[in-house]
Amino acid sequence: MELRKYFSKFIKQRRKKLSEKDLALSTNISKMIAQEIKDISLYRQAFTLKASSKKGENYERLEFLGDSILGSTISCYLFKTYPDANEGYLTQMKSKIVNRKNLNKIGDNLKLVQLSPAGNTSVLSENISGNLFEALIGAIYLDLGYETCQDILLKKLLPPQELLKLENKIASYKSILLEWSQKKKVELRYDTQEEHQNKHISFKSCVWIDGKKISCATESSKKKAEEKAAQRAFYTLNKKEHILEKSKLDS
Q1: What separation in angstroms does the CA of 207 have from each of 119, 174, 219?
Q2: Cβ pair 163, 97 in contact under 8 A
Q3: Is the pTM of this model over 0.85?
Q4: What is the tens place of the pLDDT at every residue in 80-116?
Q5: Which helix (DSSP H) or strand (DSSP E) does residue 233 occupy?
Q6: Less CB within 10 Å around the terminal CB: N or C of the chain?
Q7: How many Cα atoms sit within 13 Å of 184 on the Cβ side?
Q8: Which parts of the sequence bind Mg(2+) (predicted)?
Q9: Is 36 among the residues known to form the active site?
Q10: Catalytic residue (choose from 134, 191, 210, 227)
């Protein structure tokens, strides 16, 4: 009881020493992770964008660290949760969780960009939300330790019920088509061309299987165009035969 009173008094004294901005950041992070943070400077760095950093102290180094912590945490979780699944299935599940699109979604839901002082005024990359999420993980790890960071990740930021939603989600239609074509021993190729219209550059990609055009799609990048074309080809082919294996043991 005495220890609890001392800790509460210590937290209040420490909060009084924080600037208004740091106090707001500390409060937001603590509510988000349901845990009192210790070193506000780590979180300040985690939400400092590269363009606004003076000494190179921005989120990028913490993002690098957070990426590793996230990967190891998810790998351990999947290994324990799916004891009968093979390496292929575990790899696919991990990819669905840690891929950039999903991390961006998590970062958006947590409204992490709003925690950056320059978040509302800078021109931001399309992956900034996911990058800041990984930087936050890096900061939590350095501030509170590995076990506490794992606990926060799996209970607050990436709870099991959210991870289960990704189980039947397809992370890459290109990967699915490639695996299917190899099993069926058919030729799969992408014909992707750069297109120019009114000074605007786009990419058109068509999926060909055994010399037959299956689908086409146009997007702002080659990668996006091929993935969308693969998605359309998947739905076209899936009407005729079962492409996606449902069993995790056969993945």
Answers
A1: 39, 10, 14
A2: yes
A3: no
A4: 999 999 998 898 899 889 999 899 999 999 999 999 8
A5: helix 222-238
A6: N
A7: 16
A8: 63, 131, 134
A9: no
A10: 134
